[in-house]
Design goal:
With 436 residues, this protein is an alpha+beta fold. It is built from ten helices and 18 strands.
Length: 436
C-alpha cells in the first residue's frame, strides 16, 4: 500500500539540496600519503572489561566493568611505535594495553539492583556527550494495566544517563518506570542531531527529547495516545461537559435515579478511544482508498474489501521502532503483537508496515507494506537517509552506499537479478536496514 510517495521523495531531496550551513567538506575523494599500521600484535594484556565501541570520531573507547555497574572510558594514544625496516622487534611493553590506551576515568552508573545495558550507547559528536542506559530485570508476566500492551514485558526502572565524555561528569538523567524500551542494539532509541526519539513498546508512546548544549534532557512532546499538546486537555474538557449534561438529564428524568446513575457511570467508564496516532493512521488509509475510485458504488465496494475487512488488523498494529528522517518527519514501523515477538530482533522476519509521520502537522503522509516496490525504490535511491544519525556529520560524506556509489549500486542490482525472487531480496535487505 502506498500513498503520497512524492512527499517522501521531497523530504530526502530537500536534505540533499540544502546542505547544513558551515559545512566545508570536499566531496571529491583522494588518496593521501599516510602512516598506516603494517604490523599486528597478538596476545596483548587487556583489562578484564566488556569493550563496547569507539566513538564515531575515534576520540574515546567505551567499555564497561564485568559486573555491568561501572563505565570505563579510554583515550587512544595512537602512534606508539614506528619502525622503518621490515623486521619489527618491539619491546615487551608493546604487548601491554596501556601502551595504546590511557584510562580517563571510571564512573559508577548502575545502582545495586540495576545493570548497564552493554548493547546501548549513543554519541552526540557535536558536544562529545555519551548517552548510556541502566535498567532493572525484566518482568515477563507483568499484567497489562493502565493501557499497556498484552504480552510485552515490563521493567521497573529504566534510566538514561547523559554524560560528558571529556571528564565523565553525569549531566542529566531520564527515568522511565514500569515500562519497556528495547535497548538492545539501540533499537528502541534513535538520535538525530540533538533530538532523541524513545519508543515505549509497553504503552505505545513515542517520546521526543532534546539534548541541550548545557547537557539537559528536555521533554519536547509525546506521540501516542495524543498527537498535539492540547489533545488531552480538549478531551478532558469535553468529557466533563458531557458528564454535566448527563447529570442534568438525570435530574429531569422521572425514572429510577439510582439505576440511571449506575448505567451512566458504566457508559462513561466503557467509553474508550483509539490512540491519536492510530486514528491518524486509520484516517489516512481510509482517505487513500476513498480517493482511488470516483464511482460511488465502486468506492463502497473498495472500502469494504480493502478497509473494513482489514479494519481490526489495522487497529491491532503496534509500533515496533521509530527513526527520524529529518527534524520534522518520523519513520514508524508497525507490526502485529502475536507472540510478543515485537520485543526481539526476530520481529524483523514478520510482515510489517512503515508510516511516515509529520510531527508538526500530526499527519501521516505515507504508508507502505514492507514489501512494497515503491518503498524499495525509495530505499535504493535514498539509502543514506534511512540510517544516518545526522546529515551534519562530516564523516557521512565519505561513507559509500548504493545511493552514492555506482559500484555499490551495480553490486546491489546484480544480487537482485541473480535472486530467484525479487520480493525475497527486498524483504531480506530492507528488513536488515530500515529502522535498524
Amino acid at each position: 500500500m502506498l500513498r503520497n510517495n512524492n512527499v517522501v521523495a521531497r523530504i530526502f531531496q530537500r536534505q540533499i539540496q540544502t546542505p547544513p550551513p558551515g559545512t566545508s567538506v570536499h566531496c571529491a575523494r583522494r588518496f593521501y600519503e599516510n602512516l598506516v599500521p603494517s604490523f599486528t600484535i597478538y596476545d596483548v594484556e587487556c583489562p578484564d572489561h566488556s569493550f563496547r565501541k569507539f566513538t564515531d570520531d575515534g576520540q574515546y573507547l567505551i567499555s564497561f566493568s564485568r559486573n555491568h555497574q561501572d563505565l570505563i572510558v579510554y583515550r587512544p594514544t595512537w602512534l606508539s611505535y614506528s619502525y622503518k625496516q621490515e623486521d619489527c622487534h618491539l619491546p615487551s611493553r608493546a604487548k601491554r594495553f596501556d601502551s595504546f590506551f590511557t584510562q580517563l576515568y571510571c564512573v559508577p552508573l548502575a545502582s545495586s539492583n540495576e545493570v548497564i545495558c552493554k548493547d546501548f550507547f549513543l554519541y552526540v559528536i557535536t558536544n562529545q556527550f555519551g548517552l548510556f542506559a541502566t535498567s532493572t530485570a525484566q518482568i515477563h508476566d507483568a499484567p497489562a494495566i493502565g493501557g499497556a500492551i498484552q504480552g510485552v514485558p515490563s521493567i521497573e526502572r529504566i534510566t538514561f544517563h547523559l554524560l560528558r565524555l571529556e571528564d565523565g561528569v553525569i549531566l542529566d538523567e531520564k527515568v522511565f518506570r514500569n515500562d519497556f524500551i528495547n535497548l538492545a542494539h539501540n533499537m528502541g532509541v534513535f538520535l538525530y542531531d540533538d533530538l532523541l526519539a524513545v519508543v515505549s513498546l509497553r504503552y505505545q508512546t513515542i517520546y521526543i527529547l532534546q539534548i541541550r548544549e548545557s547537557g539537559n534532557l528536555v521533554d519536547v512532546r509525546a506521540i501516542g495516545a495524543f498527537c498535539r499538546e492540547d489533545d488531552e486537555l480538549f478531551l478532558n474538557s469535553n468529557s466533563q461537559r458531557m458528564a454535566v449534561a448527563d447529570r442534568s438529564k438525570l435530574h429531569q428524568s422521572s425514572g429510577n435515579h439510582v439505576d440511571n446513575g449506575v448505567h451512566s457511570n458504566q457508559l462513561n467508564s466503557d467509553n474508550s478511544f483509539l490512540s491519536g496516532i492510530k486514528q491518524r493512521l486509520l484516517s489516512f488509509i481510509f482517505q487513500g482508498i476513498w480517493s482511488e475510485e470516483t464511482d460511488k458504488f465502486q468506492r463502497v465496494q473498495c472500502l469494504k474489501k480493502k478497509f473494513y475487512f482489514h479494519f481490526q488488523d489495522y487497529v491491532d498494529l503496534i509500533i515496533w521502532k521509530v527513526q527520524f528522517l529529518d527534524r520534522h518527519h518520523l519513520l514508524i514501523k508497525f507490526g502485529s503483537v502475536d507472540g510478543g515477538l515485537q520485543v526481539s530482533r526476530n520481529a524483523d522476519h514478520h510482515p510489517s508496515f512503515f508510516a511516515v509521520y509529520n510531527m508538526e502537522t500530526t499527519e501521516i503522509v505515507a504508508f507502505y507494506q514492507n514489501s512494497a516496490d515503491e518503498l524499495y525504490l525509495l530505499f535504493e535511491q535514498f539509502c543514506d537517509h534511512f540510517y544516518a544519525m545526522s546529515r551534519n556529520s562530516s564523516y557521512m560524506n565519505f561513507i559509500s552506499s548504493h545511493s552514492n556509489n555506482i559500484h555499490a549500486l551495480e553490486q546491489l542490482r546484480s544480487i537482485k537479478y541473480k535472486a530467484s525472487s525479487l520480493s525475497q531480496v527486498k524483504y531480506e535487505y530492507m528488513t536488515c536496514e530500515l529502522c535498524s
